[in-house]
Amino acid sequence: MSITTKYVGLDVSKDKIVIAIANEGRDELPRYWGSIDHTKEAVRKLIGQLTKEDNVKLDVCYEAGPTGFVLQRWFLEFFVECSVVAPISLTTNTRIKTDKRDALRLAQLWRARELTPIYVPSVEDEALRDLVRAREDAVEDQNRSRQRLMKFLLRHQLLLPKGKTKWSRAHEEWLDTLRFDQDCEDIVFQEYRNCIREAGQRIARYEKEMEKQVASSSLAPLIQALQALRGVALITATTLAAELGNITGRFAHPGQLMSYAGLVPSEKSSGGSRWQGGITKAGNAHIRRVVIEAAWNYRHSPAIRRALRERLDGLSSAVQEVAWNAQKRLHQKYKRLSAKGKQRGKVVTAVARELLGFIWAIAREIEKDKNDLVQIGRSC
Questions:
Q1: Contact at 8 Å (CB) between 174 and 161?
Q2: Fewest CB atoms within 10 Å of the CB: 36, 52, 135, 296?
Q3: Residue range 52-83, pLDDT digits in tens
Q4: Could you tell me which residues come within 8 angstroms of residue 374 by beta carbon, excluding any fewer than 6 positions away?
Q5: Long-range contact list for 130-135, CB < 8 A, 24+ apart?
């Protein structure tokens, strides 16, 4: 007997899941099934109800959102195929938008294969990614607290003396000398400083845990190899690995990685005219930020100094060659574009885009080494 596929669209919220089903073929319109509680037991019962008939296969999808990937893992645990798709505009009628309509549209588009599944990280990789993003939140909190303190001092005409660098040891010592006439102002000043100090302590704890996790993570070989690149130390390498996961498995070509990071030019073309603008910024903002920060290092002439030399120790010659070629090529690109009078920000963005190509190349070398080890293990 032939197997019949039911394409199931789920509109997922915190408390409930709305279900619509599109049967195989294009003749029937999708139908609304109902809603269930957002619990594992309710999902198990739903699968049992939808597969009462013999030879029925379920193909489920839902949009990526704040509820994460736990629902997808529940379906896989019950041996049902489930994909998480990129969020889209599900209706052209913006005046009428309901969960039911969204679920029906999801089922219809999923049956037509017009939705794009996204990468779902493993539980371990997602945990590392959460750690990296929590550190980013702490850094953001620290920066905001610092800005609030500086604005508070500016309102009192207390400016940092010339020759002192912001947030250096000399700056902290200068802050220690400040006193205010009003007790309220003293309290505000000290509380702002406490916020900065607490955020700094949280950052230190996150980084310590990152060092611990990186040593035992399945992504450890990739993280170590990415540090061969100039400007890519532990934090940046861990961010790249945690956000991208299996780089060569997800991206068949480095251009796809560049597009995912939102570092390709926007474009408007019609007929014989073609216009390119700024970068799309349509992809992963975490990747885009750390890659652009790393790209600034390529304004300097190629060199391998102590910190980088220590990171290169123990890496394969192929990875080291890719990293050295990156230094030479990207520095030349920076010089060439700067000589044309391009703005420094645009120059660094162009360098960052090409840096992603070298990141992809290093990931490919790691994948080759992994495959070679597998082959050796099988031959033994």
A1: yes
A2: 52
A3: 887 899 999 999 999 999 999 999 999 999 99
A4: none
A5: 131/206, 131/209, 131/210, 131/213, 131/242, 132/210, 132/238, 132/239, 132/242, 132/243, 132/286, 133/286, 134/206, 135/203, 135/206, 135/207, 135/210, 135/235
Please give the full DSSP string across 168-216, using - where no structure is assigned: SHHHHHHHHT---SSHHHHHHHHHHHHHHHHHHHHHHHHHHHHHHHHHH
pLDDT in tens, 77-123: 999 999 999 887 665 566 778 999 999 999 999 999 999 899 999 99
> Cα torsion at 269, 274, 275, 276 (round to 10°)?
90
Whole-angstrom distance, CA of residue 257 vs CA of residue 250? 8
277: which residues sit within 8 A by CB, 6+ positions away?
265, 266, 267, 268
Report which secondary-structure segment, H or E, holds 311.
Answer: helix 306-312
How far apart CA 226 and CA 221 sit, in angstroms, is: 9
- Can you tell me the distance from the alpha carbon of 209 to that of 225, in angstroms, rounded to the nearest whole number? 20
CA 237, 279, 357, 327 torsion-angle sign: negative
**Cβ neighbour number for residue 325 with a 10 Å cutoff:** 13
Q: Are strands 265-270 and 81-85 parallel, antiparallel or unpaired?
A: unpaired
Q: Under a CB-based contact definition with an 8 Å cutoff, are residues 266 and 276 in contact?
A: yes
How far apart, in Å, are the Cα atoms of 337 and each of 175, 264, 280, 300, 367? Answer: 42, 17, 20, 14, 33
Radius of gyration, alpha carbons of the chain: 26
- 3-state DSSP call for residue 284? coil
Supply 107's token pair. Answer: 């089922």
